[in-house]
Write a structure and sequence with these properties.
419 residues, alpha+beta, 2 domains, nine-stranded antiparallel β-sheet, 16 helices, 11 strands
Length: 419
């Protein structure tokens, strides 16, 4: 059997009354789907919950540091790398490769006959981006070995007298420019080492990173996660009027609360969907060179080992918002993993909102709808897809015997769908 490149994860999880994800108005996030209102938990919220969880740290290591404030990140990484590099080198390296200026302006080659143009534009503000200490370690290692030759120094010094115009640069400025250019070239020549270092932070390998400034390296995410929505219509009109009693005033005989506020909340069965591109994950981890490279048994096995943890996280982690008030620490009631040739969402199983069953619940009919829709899509398109399902209550077979526990489903994923 030809190895499939994608794993699709489908999870149904019933949350008791809660408010797991809020908007800028402190209201529950929602979405219109199938013409009705659904409660929503954003993919950003789910991804952050996954990478900051105790399970993630135990299974996949420390996640990256996400920030837009380079000045705050430099001392953190400097402390972590202080036994390996000079603090000034670490700061200079990070400023060079993370700074909020156009890299083209920073490394523009000095023309011996024309002064390099200077940009009048103000530096752009950095976007929030993930940074790995392993990446900075490799960058510092490369930069530390770069020096100017005597010929390069002589050339830079000679350029001082050839400058024209008002904005003449000092000899030291031209030497710094020459060194910067050489450092940038050295990093570009060893960019695969940098990519491999980035891949050691699994959350970047999974979610990717968009280059927004300086010479930072972009990473195409291997995992796509949809916003989780309820399988049924929900009008989140439930409002908790909560108070805080001031003990000191009540002891003095005063009545009433010291604080009064409101919080919107609701409950529902949520559909979580994610797809994992196994080949892209192997590229991001530095296990294979590019998307056209042949994967090895070892590189695929490493990707599948991460995939099992992704499944576990999707089935078990819950956003922390308002949990001290609602404690909606619910685990998945149903989970499906499938090996396929393409990402395939089953959200349309719930385009027509689920109706309560005769006992008044949404969970069982949601599980039934998901399994039936998977079977219809599989037959209609002749999909060559292998799937297994896990249910807390009852057995739900797709195209194979259902598993009894989540651990069994994880083992099935690690075995490449062969067990």
């Amino acid at each position: 059997m030809t190895a499939k490149n994608f794993i699709n994860f489908h999870v149904l999880i019933s949350h008791s009354p809660s408010c797991l994800n809020r908007d800028d108005q402190n209201m529950q996030k929602t979405a219109i789907f199938g013409g009705v209102n659904r409660v929503r938990v954003s993919s950003q919220s789910l991804k952050r919950t996954m990478r900051t969880s105790t399970y993630y740290t135990k299974a996949l290591g420390t996640s990256s540091t996400r920030t837009r404030n380079l000045e705050n990140l430099i001392p953190i990484f400097t402390e972590q790398l202080q036994n390996e590099f000079e603090p000034a080198l670490i700061a200079k390296t990070m400023e060079l490769f993370v700074r909020a200026k156009s890299s083209d302006e920073e490394v523009k080659e000095y023309d011996e006959t024309n002064e390099a143009a200077e940009s009048d534009a103000a530096p752009k503000k950095l976007a929030v981006a993930p940074w790995s200490v392993e990446e900075i370690r490799v960058l510092c290692s490369i930069v530390r070995e770069v020096t100017l030759t005597e010929e390069e120094v002589t050339k830079a010094k000679a350029a001082v007298a050839k400058q024209k115009g008002r904005k003449k640069k000092t000899e030291q400025e031209l030497l710094d420019e020459a060194l910067t250019k050489k450092r940038v070239k050295a990093v570009k020549d060893k960019i695969e080492l940098v990519r491999t270092a980035i891949g050691k932070s699994v959350d970047i390998a999974l979610s990717g990173r968009m280059a927004t400034s300086g010479l930072m390296t972009s990473v195409d995410g291997a995992m796509a996660i949809a916003h989780a929505i309820t399988t049924h219509a929900v009008e989140p009109q439930d409002v908790d009027w909560f108070t805080a009693v001031d003990d000191l005033t009540s002891d003095a005989g005063e009545t009433g609360a010291g604080h009064l506020d409101t919080q919107q909340f609701s409950s529902g069965v949520f559909y979580r969907y994610a797809s994992l591109n196994l080949r892209q994950l192997q590229v991001n981890l530095g296990l294979i060179e590019n998307m056209k490279s042949a994967e090895t048994a070892e590189s695929r096995a490493q990707a599948l080992a991460i995939a099992r943890h992704v499944l576990h996280l999707l089935a078990t982690v819950v956003p922390s918002a308002k949990q001290q008030s609602f404690a909606a620490h619910n685990l998945a009631d149903f989970a499906v993993a499938s090996f396929a040739d393409q990402p395939i969402s089953l959200a349309n199983a719930f385009e027509e909102p689920i109706k309560r069953d005769r006992n008044g619940g949404f969970l069982k009919p949601s599980i039934t709808a998901l399994a039936e829709y998977w079977a219809r899509i599989h037959a209609a398109y002749g999909l060559d897809e292998t799937a297994r399902a896990f249910a807390v209550q009852g057995d739900v077979a797709l195209n194979g015997k259902p598993v009894a526990t989540l651990a069994e489903l994880e083992s099935w994923v690690v075995s490449d769908g062969q067990a």
